[in-house]
């Protein structure tokens, strides 16, 4: 209003230009003078002109208006999902099989949104979400784990385990291997330190009547596949962990029982479901179906 009054030279002309009554404009200018603690206009006949303080504030008003317009545009882009930032935490075997295709699809639809990706802390996979450092975390829950009141948990996929054997193993000719047949075999571990995935392997073996004899421990599935290929033992691995496999191994279905791990997306219950968050969850669901 001050800018209009100074530009047009009168309160009446400014009121007509802005669609207000002269009284409303005068009240707003008076309020601005009280806020600044100084006179902004001086009357000259039927017109007004700015004081030194009025000229100074008017010079700043254009820049202030531009910044407000820029802020409104940026906020509209953020609310519409055209810009912004999203942080996703994931465990290693979900990276290539689920996170990569999901993020690629998301970026095609939202090129202006930055996606920050990082591995979860294996000892505290939900900590980053709870602290507000991540928007979504992909996790494999413990079997006895109960949903937390502060988190929203969505089931994305079931990842079944397969038995991985050296190519020349006697059981390699079978299409489906009974887990009990592996009771006397040396085993290659593929998760260290122990976590929920290893727990499913041990539980399945216990149900089949034995405890696996781990003669080799590996911290990742790719190395474990190499150990199996070298004939050091057999392994149970989730399908996502096997990936493209290894030329020196065969992968077979297992029964009696077949362990399965759940893959879930977790986020804060208090978090507003923005367009980009909805789109990322949808992309993860699509990747999980694939």
Total number of strands: 12
Low-confidence stretches: none
* Share in β-strands: 25-35%
Helix content: 40-55%
Radius of gyration from the alpha-carbon trace, in angstroms? 32 Å
Overall spatial form: rod-shaped
Separation of termini? 58 Å
Multimerization state: single chain
Query: What is the overall number of helices?
Result: 10
Strand count, sense and closure of the main sheet? 8 strands, mixed
Helix/strand-derived class? alpha/beta
Mean pLDDT: 91
* SSE string, helices as H and strands as E: HHHEEHEHEHEEEEHEHEHEEH
Description:
This protein has 290 residues and is of the alpha/beta class. Helices cover 42% and strands 26% of the residues. The protein contains ten helices and twelve strands. Strands 3, 4, 5, 6, 7, 10, 11 and 12 form an eight-stranded mixed β-sheet that branches. Strand 3, helix 5 and strand 4 form a beta-alpha-beta unit. Helix 1 crosses helix 2, helix 2 crosses helix 3 and helix 5 crosses helix 10. It is rod-shaped. The chain starts with a helix and ends with a helix. The mean pLDDT is 91.
């Amino acid at each position: 209003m001050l800018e209009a009054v100074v530009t047009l030279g009168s309160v009446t002309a400014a009121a007509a230009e802005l669609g207000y009554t002269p009284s409303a404009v005068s009240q707003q200018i008076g309020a601005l003078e009280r806020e600044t603690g100084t006179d902004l206009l001086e009357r000259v006949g039927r017109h007004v002109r700015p004081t030194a303080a009025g000229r100074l504030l008017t010079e700043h008003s254009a820049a202030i208006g531009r910044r407000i317009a820029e802020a409104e545009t940026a906020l509209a882009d953020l609310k519409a999902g055209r810009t912004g930032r999203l942080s996703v935490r994931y465990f290693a075997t979900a990276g290539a099989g689920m996170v990569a295709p999901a993020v690629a699809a998301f970026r095609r639809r939202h090129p202006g949104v930055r996606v920050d990706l990082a591995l979860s802390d294996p000892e505290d996979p939900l900590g980053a979400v709870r602290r507000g450092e991540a928007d979504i975390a992909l996790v494999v829950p413990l079997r006895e784990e109960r949903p937390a009141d502060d988190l929203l948990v969505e089931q994305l996929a079931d990842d079944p385990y397969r038995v991985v054997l050296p190519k020349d193993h006697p059981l390699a000719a079978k299409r489906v291997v009974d887990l009990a047949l592996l009771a006397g075999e040396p085993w290659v571990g593929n998760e260290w330190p122990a976590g929920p995935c290893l727990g499913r392997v041990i539980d399945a073996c216990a149900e089949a009547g034995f405890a696996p004899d781990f003669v080799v421990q590996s911290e990742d599935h790719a190395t474990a596949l190499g150990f199996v290929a070298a004939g050091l033992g057999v392994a149970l691995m989730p399908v996502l962990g096997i990936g493209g496999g290894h030329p020196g191994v065969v992968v077979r279905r297992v029964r009696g029982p077949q362990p399965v791990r759940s893959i879930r997306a977790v986020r804060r219950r208090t978090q507003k479901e923005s367009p980009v968050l909805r789109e990322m969850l949808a992309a993860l669901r699509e990747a999980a179906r694939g």
